[in-house]
Write a structure and sequence with these properties.
Elements: E1 10-17, H1 23-32, E2 39-43, E3 55-60, E4 63-66, E5 71-74, H2 79-91, E6 100-104, H3 111-119, H4 124-127, E7 128-138, H5 142-148, H6 150-157, E8 161-165, H7 173-186, E9 191-194, H8 199-203, H9 217-221, H10 223-242, H11 248-253, H12 256-260, E10 261-268, H13 274-288, E11 292-301, E12 304-314, E13 317-323, E14 334-341, H14 345-355, H15 366-371
Parallel strand pairs: 1-6, 1-7, 2-5, 2-6, 7-8, 8-9
Antiparallel strand pairs: 3-4, 4-5, 10-14, 11-12, 11-14, 12-13
Helix pairs in contact: 5-6, 13-14
This protein binds guanosine-5'-triphosphate.
Length: 378
C-alpha cells in the first residue's frame, strides 16, 4: 500500500433504543451471524450482553474476543478516544483487522451527538463510514415509552432503520399496527424491520458501501417516503377539518412529543448556485442548529448540474460528504430531507424559498434575511 492510497472505510452502525427495548438481545443475535464476522462492538459495560457463552478470550483490558470472531470492547475515556484507540491497535496489528463497528448506546442516549461526533471528526470521518442509526422499539411497550419519554421519540426519529422487537409477546395486533403507523409518521424514511431480519439488513444501508464507494443515494435519502407521508398527513389534517369528531382515537395516538418532531422534504426544480446553497445551509445551521436532528440532501449546483452534491447534516454541522458522478435516477430535482425537533416546516421553507429567489408575498428576501436572520422568527 502506498502512502497515497486511503485505507478502506470501516462501516460503523449506532444501535440505540430505550431502556429494555431489546438492544442487547438483538446484538447477541447479530454477533452470532457469520455475516458479521470481524465486527467490533463498543458498549458501556460487558455485563450488558451476557457474554459468557460467547467468550473466547480476553484480548486486552476492556476487550474480549467472542466465538464468532467478533471483538467486544467497553468505552474507555470517551467514545472518540475508544474509536481512535481501536484504529491504532488495528493499524499496529495488535488486534484483528476488524471490518465493522457497532456502537451500542445506553437506553437514555440521544444518538444525534454520537453521530455528530463520528461524522465530523477530522480523522475518524476518514476511517469510519457511518452506516446510520438503528433503533430498537419494543412492540409491547413501545407506544407507552414513546408517550412518556421524549428521548425515545428522538431515537426513533433519527434512525435509518427501526427494529421492532418482542413481537412474539404481542397480544394486541391492532396496537402493533398503530405502533407501525406511528413510527412511519414519526420517521417516514426509516426502514421498519422485524427482530429476526437478516443481520446485513440491520447493520448496512449507509451512504457509503464497504468499498468506501458511494452507495444507493436514493435509498439513503428516502425522499419519496417522506413526501408521501407529508401528503398523507396533510390530507389527514384536512379531513379532520371537514369532519370533526371522526377518527378520534387516531389523533389521541399522536402526542406532544411526536408532534414536535417532523420530517419534511423541500425541493427545487432549478439548480441552485453554490453560494446560495452555502448561505442557506449556513444560516439554517447557525440559527436553528440544535433543532436539526438530521438533514440529508441531493442538490444540483448551477455551476455543475450534472454532478449532484450530497448533503448530510446533524445539528450544527452540515457538510458535503460526496459529489456524485451522475444523478441516481431521472429525477434531477434538488431535494433536502429534514428531520427537525420543535421547528416548523414553514420556517425552513420560507428561508429556502427566499434563497431560491422565490419569496412569497410579504416575506423577506435572502438579502434581508442575511442581514437579519431573526426576521424569520414569528
Ligand atoms: N420474548 C422476547 N423477549 C425479548 C425480546 N427482545 C428482548 N427481550 C427481553 O426483554 C428484556 C430486555 O432486553 P434487552 O435486550 O436486555 O434490552 P436492552 O435494550 O439491551 O436493555 P438495557 O440495556 O437495559 O437498555 C430481556 O429480558 C430480554 O430477554 C424478544 O424479541 N422477545
Amino acid at each position: 500500500m502506498t502512502a497515497m492510497t486511503p485505507p478502506a472505510l470501516i462501516p460503523l452502525t449506532i444501535l440505540t433504543g430505550f431502556l429494555g427495548s431489546g438492544k442487547t438481545t438483538l446484538l447477541n443475535r447479530l454477533l452470532k451471524d457469520p455475516a458479521l464476522q470481524d465486527t467490533v462492538v463498543i458498549m458501556n459495560e460487558f455485563g450488558e450482553i451476557g457474554l459468557d457463552h460467547l467468550l473466547v478470550e480476553t484480548v486486552d483490558e476492556g476487550m474480549v474476543l467472542l466465538s464468532a470472531g467478533c471483538l467486544c470492547c467497553t468505552v474507555r475515556g470517551d467514545l472518540i478516544a475508544t474509536l481512535e484507540d481501536l484504529l491504532r491497535k488495528r493499524d499496529n496489528d495488535r488486534i484483528l483487522p476488524f471490518k465493522r463497528v457497532i456502537i451500542e448506546t445506553t437506553g437514555l442516549a440521544d444518538p444525534a451527538p454520537i453521530l455528530h461526533a463520528v461524522l465530523y471528526h477530522p480523522y475518524l470521518s476518514l476511517r469510519y463510514a457511518v452506516e446510520g442509526v438503528v433503533t430498537a422499539v419494543d412492540a409491547v411497550n413501545g407506544a407507552a415509552t414513546l408517550d412518556a419519554h421524549r428521548e425515545a421519540v428522538k431515537q426513533a426519529a433519527v434512525a435509518e432503520r427501526i427494529v421492532i422487537t418482542k413481537t412474539d409477546l404481542v397480544q394486541d395486533p391492532d396496537g402493533l399496527v398503530r405502533l407501525h403507523e406511528r413510527l412511519r409518521q414519526l420517521n417516514p424514511g426509516a426502514a421498519l424491520l422485524a427482530a429476526d431480519a437478516p443481520a446485513e439488513a440491520v447493520v448496512s444501508g449507509g451512504l457509503f458501501g464497504l468499498d468506501g464507494k458511494i452507495g444507493d443515494v436514493a435509498e439513503w435519502l428516502k425522499t419519496e417516503a417522506v413526501e408521501a407521508a407529508e401528503h398523507a398527513s396533510h390530507a389527514h389534517q384536512h379531513g379532520h377539518h371537514h369532519h370533526p369528531g371522526q377518527d378520534h382515537h387516531h389523533h389521541h395516538d399522536v402526542n406532544r412529543h411526536d408532534d414536535r418532531i417532523r420530517a419534511f422534504c423541500l425541493t427545487s426544480d432549478q439548480p441552485v448556485r453554490q453560494g446560495t446553497l452555502d448561505m442557506f445551509l449556513d444560516l439554517l445551521r447557525s440559527s436553528q442548529g440544535a433543532k436539526l436532528l438530521r438533514v440529508k440532501g441531493l442538490v444540483a449546483l448551477a455551476e455543475d448540474p450534472d454532478h449532484p452534491v450530497v448533503i448530510h447534516g446533524v445539528q450544527h454541522v452540515i457538510h458535503v460528504p460526496a459529489v456524485l458522478p451522475r444523478w441516481p435516477s431521472a429525477d434531477r430535482r434538488s431535494r433536502l430531507v429534514f428531520i427537525v425537533d420543535d421547528l416548523e416546516r414553514d420556517t425552513v421553507e420560507r428561508l429556502w424559498n427566499a434563497f431560491l429567489g422565490r419569496p412569497a408575498v410579504d416575506q423577506p428576501d435572502a438579502a434581508a434575511l442575511s442581514d437579519n436572520p431573526l426576521s424569520l422568527r414569528r
